[in-house]
Design a protein that fits this description.
single chain, 327 residues, Rossmann fold, N-(1-d-carboxylethyl)-l-norvaline Dehydrogenase, domain 2, 2 domains, eight-stranded mixed beta sheet, 15 helices
């Protein structure tokens, strides 16, 4: 299929390359042309344009434009512009970290013009180029069925993950491949928002555990109660046969193997919005979410002095998403 990709940052650029490698034709647009040229050199069947109007004109109907821009005004303006340029039956995809209520509003705005809107919650970070992207998306069945070959190419596929025990035949087979139509517009980013809230809690649990173990060797304890524990070896052994393995633990192990003190990280842990939005949804629904809330507040506290655990959080964020601490 042929589509336009607007926004070629850490994820958008790699997604364009992965799609091109799977035989799709990708029209590339970025605010800096040098980035488009960098991606073009790695993406067969790609072409470069310099503005949104040229991108739209380069696409066949129904036109498919995938936006991978930061959430907020830049995405808002791009979608408004596309609403004026596209025609009935065309499809706008937002794969960034957008607040789901904005998706609902934008979908209604475009629907009035006959344009489809699909929101894709995208997980995979800087590793998605090779591993594939887990995607949760919302939109009309007509639109998501049309773009299914694109989503299938981006998804991880079956891989080595065994089927869930007791799996019944009513479960969606696409879920096994790593992508799922969750419902109407907004539902994809809502599910991804909760995913990221859970991620906050899981990361916090690992960070606190490693902090407790490291502190066991400090002089705040009696000498005969101290253990000089090897963090890198502990992370590695937990990956093999324990009940707490995960990709996040893999990232912990990788960071600790490179430097057991995590000296390359300050521990100032940023948040990009999804954790806050998850807590807001919990409040609206009167659902208790103490773990996610505490994890978010710990990120706030980390910006005024840091622990080893907060350095561990920074190391995980850098590992999966390439998130660099603010200087």
């Amino acid at each position: 299929m042929k589509l336009g990709m607007y926004g070629l940052g850490r994820m958008g650029g790699n997604m364009a390359i992965r799609l091109a490698r799977h035989g799709h034709e990708v029209v590339l647009l970025n605010r800096t042309r040098s980035k488009s040229e960098e991606i073009h050199n790695q993406a067969p069947k790609s072409t470069i344009v310099d503005d949104l109007k040229s991108l739209v004109e380069a696409l066949p109907s129904p036109k498919i434009v995938w936006i991978m821009l930061p959430c907020g005004e830049v995405t808002e303006q791009a979608i408004k512009s596309l609403g004026d340029m596209l025609n009935k039956g065309d499809i706008v995809i937002d794969g960034g970290n957008t607040f789901y209520k904005d998706d609902i509003r934008r979908a209604k705005m475009l629907e009035a013009k006959g344009i489809h809107y699909v929101d894709v919650g995208t997980s995979g970070g800087v590793w998605g180029l090779e591993r594939g992207y887990c995607m949760m998306y919302g939109g009309s069945k007509e639109a998501v069925d049309h773009i299914d070959p694109i989503l299938d190419s981006l998804a991880p596929g079956m891989g080595d993950i065994p089927r869930t025990k007791g799996r019944n035949a009513n479960l969606n087979p696409r879920a096994e491949k790593g992508y799922l139509h969750c419902g109407p517009a907004g539902s994809g980013h809502f599910v991804k928002m909760v995913h990221n809230g859970i991620e906050y809690g899981m990361m916090q649990a690992y960070a606190e555990g490693f902090d407790i173990m490291r502190t066991k060797g400090s002089d705040r304890l009696p000498e005969d109660e101290r253990f000089d524990l090897n963090m890198a070896d502990i992370a590695e052994v937990w990956r093999r046969g324990s009940v707490i393995p995960s990709w996040l633990l893999d990232l912990c192990a990788d960071a600790l193997a490179k430097d057991g003190t995590l000296a390359g990280f300050k521990g100032d842990v940023a948040d990009t919005g999804e954790g806050r939005w998850t807590i807001e949804a919990a409040i609206e629904e009167a659902v208790p979410a103490p773990v996610i809330t505490s994890a978010l507040f710990t990120r706030f506290r980390s910006r005024s002095g840091n622990t080893f655990g907060e350095k561990m959080l920074s190391a995980m964020r850098f590992g999966f998403g390439g998130h660099v601490e603010k200087k």
